[in-house]
UniProtKB/TrEMBL annotation:
Organism: Streptomyces bobili
Protein name: Biotin-dependent carboxyltransferase family protein
Domain Carboxyltransferase: 27-289
Source domain of life: Bacteria
SUPFAM superfamilies in alphabetical order: Cyclophilin-like
Length: 289
């Protein structure tokens, strides 16, 4: 039994292992996956001295709790939350030393949705297709964490950063997503395109790692026929039969048969990862580059 491991005490609503994902396999039907809020995950790894590709934990809404078998350095980033070590308050957004056998508790998100728990050495589960990420759609990678799960850790190579608190962007009070219209915006009426780029939507509670679902005005189709399944990209805004836009996130399918009215700029997607249910959403059309 290795002492370089974490034991999951409280798995939370949904806690998964994530890294930078497994790009380049869409032709096999495998999504990219990876941390939804990539900047927050990268910051966590920097704070504990990990390389950018190191795997870490992504929590959802109500956090998680883990017990290391040996003394480790951790950093919690992403959605702001209460952090404790053996019941005593600890820093969020900064390196924290967690002695062997004590419990690190990452509490519910005060705002936002997803927090990241980086551990010096990284989570060293076996990679699949070059990534340790959990993919909820395909089932690749480690299963979502459950109480009692034991996660092996890699070896520490670099000393943690020396900072008090690292600045991070606040979760959005309003989610503004810049989109390039197309390729199937002509499948919708002119009025539907106007509504899409002018009316306010809200984040649906049915959102997940596969897609951010919205509530708001339904978009009427100009073309009523079926669309042959075609390739989907990260950030594609697909419109299913109910007419409410869905923004595809990291675990999205690689093909789909509903029309894509536009594609969100990649730099706006980390904010989508932290948009809680009920958050207002605006789609803003921008010119093609």
């Amino acid at each position: 039994m290795t002492d370089r491991a974490l034991v999951v005490v409280r798995a939370g609503a949904l806690t998964t292992v994530q890294d930078r994902g497994r790009p380049g396999h869409a032709h096999l039907g495998v999504p990219r996956s990876g941390a939804l809020d990539a900047p927050a995950a990268a910051l966590g790894n920097r704070l504990v001295g990990n390389p950018p590709e190191a795997a870490l934990l992504e929590t959802t809404l109500n956090g998680c709790a883990v017990r290391p078998r040996s003394t480790v350095t951790v950093a919690v980033t992403g959605a702001p939350c209460r952090v404790t070590v053996q019941g005593r308050p600890a820093a969020w957004g900064a390196p924290v030393r967690v002695p062997a056998g004590t419990v690190l508790d990452v509490g519910p998100a005060v705002s936002g949705v997803r927090s990241y728990v980086a551990v010096a050495g990284g989570v060293a589960v076996d990679p699949v297709l070059g990534s340790r990420s959990t993919d909820l759609l395909s089932g690749l990678g480690p299963a979502p964490l459950t109480n009692g799960t034991v996660l092996p850790l890699g070896r520490t190579r670099v000393a943690p950063a020396r900072v008090d608190v690292a600045p991070q962007p606040a979760p959005p009070a309003e989610l503004v997503l810049r989109i390039t219209l197309g390729p199937r915006d002509d499948w919708f009426t002119p009025e539907a395109v106007r509504l899409f780029t002018s009316d306010a939507y809200r984040v649906s509670a049915a959102s997940n790692r596969i897609g951010l679902r919205t509530e708001g005005p339904a978009l009427d189709r100009a073309v009523a026929g079926e669309l042959a399944s075609e390739g989907m990209v990260l950030g594609a805004v697909q419109v299913p039969p109910d007419g409410r836009p869905v923004v595809f996130l990291a675990d999205h399918p690689t093909t789909g048969g509903y029309p894509v009215i536009g594609v969100v700029r990649p730099s706006d997607l980390p904010s989508a990862a932290q948009a809680a249910p009920g958050t207002p959403v605006r789609f803003v059309a921008v010119r093609r580059r």
